[in-house]
Amino acid sequence: MSRSRSRKEMMKLGAFFHPTGHHVAAWLHPDAQIDAGTNIQHYLELAKMAERSRFDFIFLADACATRSGNLSALKRWPQYMAYFEPLTLLSAMAVVTDHIGLIATATTSYNEPYHIARKYGSLDHISGGRAGWNVVTSGNQTEAFNFGRESHFEHEDRYRRAKEFVEVVKGLWDSWDDDAFTRNRECQVYFDPAKLHSLNHKGDYFAVRGPLNLARPPQGHPILVQAGASDTGMEFAAEIAEVVFSVAPSLKKAKEFYKNLKSRMAKYGRAHSDLKIMPGLNPVVGSSAQEAEDKHQELQARIHPDVGKELLSAALGGFDLSNYDVDGPLPEVPETTNGVQSYLTYVLDMARSENLTIRDLYLRYGGARGNRTIKGTAAQIADEMEEWFVEYAVDGFLIQPAYLPGGFEEFNSTVVPELQRRCLFRTEYEGKTLRESLQLTRPASRYSAPSRTVAAS
Questions:
Q1: What residues does 398 pair with on adjacent strands?
Q2: Torsion (CA) 442, 444, 449, 450 in degrees, nearest 10
């Protein structure tokens, strides 16, 4: 395509690593790293590979529970069953990289603000300013049972709680002024007491005095990421998020989401450039379109029907499909859930609009969990990415390799050079921090004079 374009900035790319890959049958691919969930060398090589290709960041999802459901199906699906705690893993990745951002999920439902502020602030220091926090309210309802609760927080309540949680964390990150630590041996003064601030927060959900026992993070605040697609989630993102991971099944839907979300930002005093929208993308690369299709079908054929039904059950808020005919229609399913509403809506809309069987549905959904799968040559994949970018449907993409490490290697060796040739993606990093890579402002402390420091470009 390589069209003349008015949009001059570069697209952003993140790498989303599920241990063996994003496809539900990834672990069955003969070239997948079968013990990936607890193989540190696997992850360190992926991190170095992503940095060589100049990705903006690595993203790791998380849950505070194993999957629950039909064990006869789950025994065939290792995802979320045994894998590293992500902040520990990202700290190891920080040591073998210099520029790439490091983003992980942490739930506001089953953590305390002080813990999150300290952990992500520490990762920001360890990495030299490359940390990001994906703020979630937990979609896995069984997490409640690991934290002394009999049920998950209700949808609206957990967003109100999350909003206060984030404000407390941001306040704790401002506990020390940037120049608070003088470390003067001659005067025997380590820090300036006037530049230490207690938060003294007392709200509806949290009472946190502070201050944080950690210097202000290099980025001021680590990057805040969010993924909610409900109206409540979008409003939350418009107010606090700096990166949004979205589900975008078509160009039309993506443009509508992009316009809707960015139009909400002005009421919070935010510019459109303060937020990057990056939908998930599952690329399957081949030397020809047919080879790419064959690669995809090879994985599709490995999805066991029990796993396909269990995958859909999770997306449908726990609705049990185990006794339904896999070649029959999707039964009537309640349209509300206390899990992830966006997944429920996507699956129901797809089933009804196209009259899909359960098998059709899980084959469509299993490759990318509601995100798009693109199959083709490097040029064909770059064409679609370019179109979405120049049409202002996205600011970049969250790349979700079907299997690892091979699927990521193929994308990096073919599609990334094509994007660079078209001047759509960087060839060198713009700076050292994740904020500099994403061209986001470094927030001033709430205790300093009102000002905004613009990130280097």
A1: 14, 280
A2: 70
> Do 226 and 278 contact (CB within 8 A), yes or no?
no
| Two structure tokens written together for 180 | 């608070």
Q: Quick check: pTM over 0.85?
A: yes
3-state secondary structure 365-386: HHCCCCCEEEEECHHHHHHHHH
Paired with 372 in beta bridges are 281
Both structure tokens of 231: 């109206």
**Rounded Cα gap, residues 33 and 404, in angstroms:** 6
| Cβ atoms of residues 219 and 123 within 8 Å | no
Classify burial at 430, counting beta carbons within 10 Å of its beta carbon; exposed 0-12, middle 13-18, buried 19 or more: middle
| 317-338 per-position pLDDT tens digit | 778 888 899 898 888 887 665 5
- Please classify residue 202 by burial: count the beta carbons closer than 10 Å to its beta carbon, then call 0-12 exposed, 13-18 middle and 19+ buried: exposed
Position 455 pLDDT exceeds 50: no
Side chain identity, residue 74: L
| Adjacent-strand bridge partners of 105 | 134
Give the tokens for residue 444: 């001033």
Give the integer Cα–Cα distance in Å for 155 and 305.
31
Give the 3-state secondary structure percentages of the chain, helix then strand then coil, rounded to 5. 40, 15, 45
Handedness of CA 165, 169, 172, 178 (dihedral sign): negative
Q: How many CB atoms lie within 10 A of CB 253?
A: 15
C-alpha angle 59-78-73 in degrees, rounded to nearest 5: 135
Contact by Cβ (8 Å): 102, 130: yes
Per-residue burial over 301-310, b if 16 or more Cβ lie within 10 Å, else e, is: ebbeebbbbb
What is the residue whose two structure tokens read 């991190």? 47
Strands 201-202 and 131-136: what pairing?
unpaired
CA distance 412 to 410: 5
pLDDT at residue 66, as a whole number: 79
